[in-house]
Amino acid sequence: MNQENRTHLTEILDAAIRRVDPYRMLHERLQLDGEQLVIRTDTEHERIDLTRFERVVVLGAGKAGAKMALAVEEILGKRLNAGVIAVKPGHGIELQTVRAIDAGHPVPDHGSIAAGRAVAELADGADERTLCLVLISGGGSALLTAPLEVSSGEMQISLTLNDLQQTTSALLECGATIHEVNCIRKHLSALKGGRLAEKLAPATTVSLILSDVVGDDLDAIASGLTAPDSTSYPDAMSIIDRYGIEAALPPPVREVLRAGIAGAIADTPSADSPVFGHVRNLLVGTNHAALMAAGEAAQRLGYHTVLLTSQLTGEARELAKVFVGIARDLNRFDLLGPRPCCVIGGGETTVTIRGSGLGGRNQELALSFVNELDRSGRDADGVAFLSASTDGNDGPTDATGAFASLGILEAARRRKLSPAEYLANNDAYHFFDELHALHKIGTTGTNVCDLQILLVQRETADE
């Protein structure tokens, strides 16, 4: 890939991430007007009289939690009395009032349990004179864990951390979507699926939400801590059946799901539950906002820009073929407009684990892009591609994503690296690492799904 293409792809991604920086966003959207806390989002305007409350507390979970908490601390100052948030290791920053607890992601760990316990204790102490600001962002489902405990008559079930770890791993490996994964998580948790809202009632709760979920469904972001749940125990079991993973689940998990279907366990609260009369859920940042910023950056760089969608889903390796097809049509027919052209999509893909390699969904998408060029490299001159996460970590790696182009494919051929073989082993990280085509930006402190950026130049690029 020539340096100009690589620079332009990087600048476009950087602009998107800057737009959804949680510290900056909260300072823009929250402000004090005397004793009034004013919250303005793209669609909402709230004004909260702080004199009504004896205490103001912060709770929450997510990769963006530390930056969000820092902004709230600075805005509220001494009006903030206490707080606790769960954050991914490496995402923490120094806070004065809010306690940040490192927790596991994407599989929960003992830190996740500690965070769940601390949040539950703070929630239990809230009353009608408490204002609870709940800071929610992507990753919160794993980071904040409170295994469900059931005690009803002769039925005694206490889920363990190991139960939830096994279940999470089975769901991640089978290729389930984030909505499906979170449906299961909600029905095994004492906090998710609106159950935190139950604990907080009758306190006034305002949740400030940074969405990492395609479609911005409130009950799916961090498994809907304070949102009504649109799913049920039968829905959870249908997902298990769809992927054929019931045998991979620990017996206590299966027991909880069956008891829930039978009505022996109360389901998660739905929209008609009175607890939500005390709750406001406000979206402060989305993938769409990042997409718009990326498009503006591409236009400044001189590209005819097409914003494809903010709702890309499906198998990463299959969606790569769509982007290759778009690139070929642009080269042959200028189908979406004149070149140089930049096509940008956003969302969250999935990966079905088939091998034992290392990588993430964005690296897999980029590797599939290269593999598709290898299968038929026609009409690929001047094409450059980047698939990247907005949080800085794609899967369990230190890369945010990877670059792809005909030049990268030619470099792989010279080194006798087969894209198809690496793809079959889900080993995108090592493929791109050999070619110096990983994109590493470090932890960003935000998380609004992923971006795919395709450049097609007017003339053949010098690869």
List keywords for this structure.
Rossmann fold, glycerate kinase, domain 1, globular, 2 domains, alpha/beta, six-stranded parallel beta sheet, six-stranded mixed beta sheet, 38% helix, 463 residues, 17 strands
Q: Please name the CATH topology of the largest domain.
A: Rossmann fold
Structural class: alpha/beta
What do we call the CATH homologous superfamily of the largest domain?
Glycerate kinase, MOFRL-like N-terminal domain
The amount of helix comes to 25-40%
Largest sheet: 6 strands, parallel
Number of strands: 17
With strands numbered from the N-terminus, the spatial order across the biggest sheet is 6-5-4-7-10-11
Overall outline: globular
Mean pLDDT across the residues is 94
CATH architecture group name of the largest domain: 3-Layer(aba) Sandwich
- Euclidean distance between termini CA atoms: 5 Å
As a percent range, the share of strand residues is 15-25%
Rounded to an integer in angstroms, the radius of gyration calculated over CA atoms is 23 Å
Question: DSSP helix count?
Answer: 16
CATH class of the largest domain: Alpha Beta
Poorly predicted spans: none
How many separate domains?
Answer: 2
Q: What would you say this structure looks like, in words?
A:
With 463 residues, the protein is an alpha/beta fold. Helix 1 packs across helix 11 (287-300), helix 9 (233-243) packs across helix 10 (251-261) and helix 12 (316-333) packs across helix 13. The strands form 4 sheets. The chain has a 6-stranded parallel β-sheet, sandwiched between helices. A 6-stranded mixed β-sheet has the order 12-13-17-14-15-16, with helices on both faces. The protein has 2 domains: 3-12 and 288-456, MOFRL domain (glycerate kinase, domain 1, 3-Layer(aba) Sandwich); 22-146 and 189-231 and 268-285, Glycerate kinase, MOFRL-like N-terminal domain (Rossmann fold), CATH 3.40.50.10180. The chain contains 16 helices and 17 strands. A hairpin with a 4-residue loop joins strand 2 and strand 3. The chain is globular and about 65 Å long.
